[in-house]
Amino acid sequence: MNIRPIRRFLRAAGTGVCAVLLAAGTIAASPAVARGPQATGFVPASTVSAEELARLGPPVPFSEYVAAQQGHGSGGTPRHEAAALSADDADLKQECAKRPEADSPAGWVKNRFETCIHRHYDVVLRREDGTETIGRLQFEAWLIGFAYDGQRKVDYLASVEDIIVQTVNGEDAKTWSINQEFTYLGGPVTAPGTQRRNDLLGAWNSNPTWSLTYTSPDNGPLFDQGNQQIVNTTVTMSMNVKSPSAPSRGWQDTDAAHSDVRFDYAGPTAGKHKGTVFTAARVELVMKLSDPAVRESARHIADAQNNPERTFPSFAAKTIPGAKEPLHRLVDREEQKKNRAAAIKTCDDVWGDYTKSGLECDEYPFASTKEGANRRDSSGKAVNRYSARLIDGDDNGKGGNMIGEVYSVNRLLDGDPFYVKIVP
């Protein structure tokens, strides 16, 4: 798996990946909006009428706003361009910018080791008495996270970018501040020395990115004693915006972003002996029907998922999980043997003696899952939501290797969910 180092994003600090496309212009005074007492301080622009918004000055990138106030026309600090990317190694941030789900507190979890949250904010400022609308602020907030296979740590890059402002009646956007603050729940976890950054817009505009690292204590290999040192935590980012014009009425988003993280020292069960993952990632085993190495394994799974009633054991209304309903890894070898034995019994009952045929009994869901052939309900009755079929032995072995690779590459521990997807 290609875990891109954190320095690639540091060099892209200040990048305006998803710049808000608004017309720039000089600051112009507009009539104040006076409609009696309303909400005060910064409020979401979505709660303000279009007429009220139209009375504000034109939207201006913050650097141009500063330059105009200093009498330098529409110049100002040049905007940084995105760092050059290789053709075969797309930047996580660039990918994230194309994902609508990234604009949510949970964001886009690309895989077990990479996550990205990209929030667009648009707030309007009213004076403390609520009678005058005097400004508008738009910006992009980013949180990019990297977990590691081989280390009990997680890195985050947080930033505020593409700041755009509108002001009227003498309001000064240079006095506005944005606060990003991080907290975590669960542990033991060692937090970074600084979990909060509260700066004026100018500081964010000139230095938009900062980093945080969370680790969990490493007590060495204890997995042989049954201690996998599993630590679950949720890292949360909150946002806050304030202006001296309404000092006690700052806008805030207490759940601007959250990231679920697990540290472990599980030993060879998870591939590398220790590591960290984003647990919200969707893990998939993908097999191709066109892959000659696992063609029969893939066909078996496709039939089991799409036409389960035609598989053995056969009964009406039979369903088999894995496509929409996840499977869960099973580590207990004795339970795996029971799953395998139940599947082989079905193959024996249907096909008889096949020991010299070069064929093997393939089971789906896999023997290494809790949904395997020996699964029982709460009363101890066999569930039988599985399929057993004879397939080529080499094909069966290579399919098993693919399953093991998914387990180790994604650090799937006992009970961790995953899906199986069959493609042409």
Provide key terms for this protein.
424 residues; alpha+beta; 2 domains; elongated; disordered N terminus
Structural summary, described in words:
With 424 residues, the protein is an alpha+beta fold. The chain has two domains: 7-278, no CATH class; 284-423, no CATH class. The protein has eight helices and 17 strands. The strands form four sheets. Strands 1, 2, 3, 4, 5, 6 and 9 form a seven-stranded antiparallel sheet that branches. A five-stranded antiparallel sheet has the order 8-7-10-11-12. Strand 3 (108-111) and strand 4 form a beta hairpin. The two termini are 23 Å apart. The model is unreliable at 1-37 and 73-89 (pLDDT under 50).
| Tally of individual helices | 8
Strand content: 25-35%
Task: Summarize the main sheet.
Answer: 7 strands, antiparallel
Q: What does the average pLDDT come to?
A: 88
Low-confidence stretches: 1-37, 73-89
The global form is elongated
How many domain units? 2
The gist of it:
The protein is an alpha+beta fold and 424 residues long.
Show the helix and strand layout.
Blueprint: H1 7-10, E1 41-44, H2 50-54, E2 60-61, H3 62-69, H4 92-97, E3 108-111, E4 114-126, E5 133-147, E6 153-167, E7 177-185, E8 196-200, H5 201-206, E9 209-215, E10 231-242, E11 251-264, E12 275-278, E13 284-288, H6 295-306, E14 327-328, H7 333-351, E15 359-364, E16 387-392, H8 393-409, E17 417-423
